[in-house]
Amino acid sequence: MSAAHPSAPAGMPLARLDEGYPVLAALSPSGRRRLLEAARWMRVPGGTCLFDEHQACEGFPFVVDGSIRVVKSAPNGRELPLYRVGSGETCILSTSCLLGREDYRARGVTESDTVLMLLPQAVFEELLDERPFREFVFHLFAERIAGLMQLIEEVAFRRLDQRLAAQLLGKGRTLHRTHQQLADELGSVREIVSRLLKGFADQGLVRLGREQVEILDPAGLRRTASGEPARSTD
C-alpha cells in the first residue's frame, strides 16, 4: 500500500471511523488507545492500486470513506472481480494474509477517492485477544467466504447470459455502464458481452445507447437470469 500519512487527515474526525466500525467502541480503553496510536492514515485517489499479487500485507485496513475493488487477474489480462470493500467492511485477503503471514494473491484498486486507517500486523494480533474485535474479524471473514462461494457457483454453474441478465437487474431503468465495465464486472471480455447485449436488444429486453443500457423488459431479463427459455413472440 502507498500514500500513507502518520495521522488522521484533516476534516476526518474519529467519529466517522467509529460510525463505520462500532466494534472499536467495545474495545478496552488500553486496546483502543493502542489502536489509535499505532494506526496509519491513508488518503488515496481513485484508481490507485493499493496492493497486488505477491506483495506482502502491511496491515489490517479500515475503510473510512470510499471503496476498494478486489480482483483476480489472469496472465492474458482478464480480471475476475472477487468483492468490494466499503466503509464498515474489511478485506478478507488482508485478514488471511495477516493470519497466515502470506503474500496477497489478488489486486486491490480504489474505485473512488478513499480514506483508510491501516492497523499494523503486531497491533492487529494484539487486538485479536479482545473478544469483540476477534468476533468482528471472524464474522466478516465468514461473510466474505460465503460471498466468494456464491461467486464460484455463479462462474461454474451459470451461463454468461444468465449472469449478465442478473447483473443488469435491480439498478433502475437505465444503467450507465460501458460494455467494457460490464465485462470487467463479470470477468469476461467486451466482445462477448457486446454480442450478448445485442441479443438482448434483438429480443426487446433492453435498448442500447452510448455508455448506457435501458431496461425495457425486466420480467424477460429475470427469466433469462433464471435460465428459463425466452417466450415466443409469435
UniProtKB/TrEMBL annotation:
Transferase found in the keyword field: no
Chain ranges of the Cyclic nucleotide-binding domain: 23-90
Coiled coil: none
Gene Ontology CC, one term: cytosol
Listed InterPro entries: cNMP-bd_dom, cNMP-bd_dom_sf, Env_Response_Regulators, HTH_CRP, RmlC-like_jellyroll, WH-like_DNA-bd_sf, WH_DNA-bd_sf
Matching CDD domains: CAP_ED (cd00038)
Residue ranges annotated for the HTH crp-type domain, each copy included: 158-219
SUPFAM superfamilies found in the cross-reference section: cAMP-binding domain-like (SSF51206), Winged helix' DNA-binding domain (SSF46785)
GO MF term set: DNA binding; DNA-binding transcription factor activity
One Pfam family recorded for the sequence: cNMP_binding
Keywords recorded for this protein, A-Z: DNA-binding, Transcription, Transcription regulation
Matches recorded under PANTHER family: CRP FAMILY TRANSCRIPTIONAL REGULATORY PROTEIN, HTH-TYPE TRANSCRIPTIONAL REGULATOR ARCR
Name this polypeptide is given: Transcriptional regulator, Crp/Fnr family
Source organism of the structure: Thauera aromatica K172
Organism placement in taxonomy: Bacteria, Pseudomonadati, Pseudomonadota, Betaproteobacteria, Rhodocyclales
